[in-house]
Write a structure and sequence with these properties.
Elements lengths: L6 H41 L7 H29 L1 H21 L3 H29 L5 H26 L5 H7 L7 H7 L4 H6 L3 H11 L13 H9 L6 H32 L4 H29 L1 H18 L6 H29 L5 H28 L6 H26 L14
Helix pairs in contact: 1-2, 1-3, 1-4, 1-5, 1-11, 2-3, 2-4, 2-15, 3-4, 3-6, 3-7, 4-5, 5-6, 5-12, 11-12, 11-14, 11-15, 11-16, 12-13, 12-14, 13-14, 13-16, 14-15
Length: 444
């Protein structure tokens, strides 16, 4: 590939790269729609006692999807290494679209739960794969910016889910909302036709000529071939390295912070409309809070990286969680609707990017040869919090303690602030690994 492409080739390549990134953005938009749609229709399901649904069952159903996401996220890398990033993305979109059809046709809570679990597998596998894809095709020097933009699609999907619920539930019924989530199935052939394969995958598979041709066509950097292939023993040694010496304390602090962070993210995402409904707001107003919350998430994703670059990811992570806890706690207080909207917006700004700052902190504080393992396992352990959060909200409502829901989620935010703060202080005393640059890792 020429080191100085002609202006016409560069312009053409930029347009093609925009196509690749745009397709990934749309895929993540549908991912967000499918993820948030359950929380958007949940108040209606509980009020109409669909399937005889109780609050604790509703919490279980929310956890089924996040458990599926845990499975999808943990298996995505292995599957992608075998069949390719592009095929996996197409498979994930197909899976969560068809699973939404299962939910739309469900005649019992068991079948509905199966649909949400299968959808979760697809949702969990798509996001990390899409991040890998846009990293390959982002314009030179714009990788972090493009990943941040990609993550805005997830929250745009959350906004869309609220409008789908508002427009369809009353005139048509809740099943129509899930039928809308089947429509991304029509996008799968478009993705298969126009999305290029991952350059990293082609290089890893020894398909160098094909990778070079794509890199020239899209005017992007060709990823360097990795020296040697990691064996199972290498991977276990990298994991063991997280616990050698005094590192086990640091590792557990990161894992606990991630657990609390994702408990907060998915607990609030699942129960926000229902808890706001319990606070006395009409269903339409409760869904409007979902829109405002996700608008805040989009703003937060765009500003978090800049703030971290200036003040340091560990400081921003701890501060973001503290502000999130304050915002979530305030939601338990019935205020004027305009004031509540402002609180929900800023809670969305801080909550949705606080977890990302944990990954950035772990990345900065890890040694270069163990960074991927550190971030991957911190994310994986946090996924258990994602499973626990929706379940916790259901249990509180079922026991008649729904008014403590926001308080419980606020405590989770404070715990993450404490754990990441202690981890950052310990790491500062020990000294950050040499050569650790502040790369922003965005992945729920």
């Amino acid at each position: 590939m020429s080191s100085s492409p002609s202006p016409s080739l560069s312009a053409r390549g930029s347009r093609l790269a925009l196509l690749a990134v745009g397709l990934c953005w749309l895929a993540v938009l549908f991912d967000g729609l499918d993820m948030f749609i359950y929380g958007s229709v949940l108040p209606h399901l509980l009020e109409t006692k669909t399937f005889g649904l109780t609050a604790d069952q509703a919490g279980d159903l929310g956890s089924y999807a996040t458990f599926g996401m845990l499975v999808g996220a943990l298996t995505a890398g292995t599957v992608a290494d075998r069949i390719g990033r592009k095929k996996l993305m197409v498979a994930c979109v197909t899976l969560f679209s068809l699973a939404s059809g299962v939910c739309a046709m469900a005649g019992s809570v068991e079948v509905f739960g199966l649909g949400r679990t299968l959808a979760g597998v697809g949702l969990g596998g798509l996001l990390p794969t899409a991040i890998s894809m846009v990293s390959d095709y982002a314009p030179r020097g714009r990788g972090a910016l493009v990943i941040g933009l990609l993550m805005t699609a997830h929250h745009a999907g959350g906004i869309l889910s609220a409008y789908v619920a508002k427009w369809l539930i009353d005139p048509v019924g809740w099943r129509a909302a899930f039928w809308v989530c089947v429509l991304p199935l029509l996008f799968a052939p478009v993705l298969a036709r126009f999305l290029p394969e991952s350059l990293s995958f082609l290089v890893a598979k020894g398909r160098g000529e094909e990778a070079r041709a794509l890199a020239e066509k899209y005017d992007v950097e060709l990823p360097a071939a990795k020296s040697g292939k990691k064996t199972a023993a290498d991977r276990w040694d990298a994991l063991a390295g997280l616990f050698r010496g005094g590192e086990w304390i640091q590792t557990l602090l990161y894992w606990l912070a991630s657990f609390g962070g994702l408990l907060l993210v998915y607990g609030v995402a699942t129960w926000l409309p229902t808890l706001m409904r319990a606070e006395g707001y009409a269903l339409g107003d409760a869904l409007s809070f979902v829109v405002v919350f996700n608008l805040g998430g989009i703003v937060g994703m765009l500003v978090a990286g800049r703030a971290a670059d200036r003040f340091g990811a560990p400081r921003i992570s701890a501060l973001w969680f503290a502000l999130t806890a304050v915002g979530v706690f305030l939601l338990s207080v019935h205020m004027a609707q305009t004031v509540t909207m402002i609180v929900v917006f800023f809670t969305g700004v801080f909550l949705n990017s606080a977890q990302t700052m944990i990954y950035a902190t772990v990345s900065i504080r890890s040694s270069p040869d163990n960074r991927a393992t550190s971030v991957g396992w911190t994310s994986g352990m946090g996924r258990f919090g994602a499973v626990f959060g929706p379940w916790l909200g259901g249990q509180l409502l079922a026991s008649g303690n729904g008014e403590f829901g926001f308080t419980a989620f606020a405590i989770a935010g404070l715990s993450s602030m404490v754990f990441i703060g202690i981890a950052a202080l310990r790491s500062s005393r020990q000294g950050a690994p040499s050569g650790a640059d502040q790369e922003l890792v965005s992945a729920h």
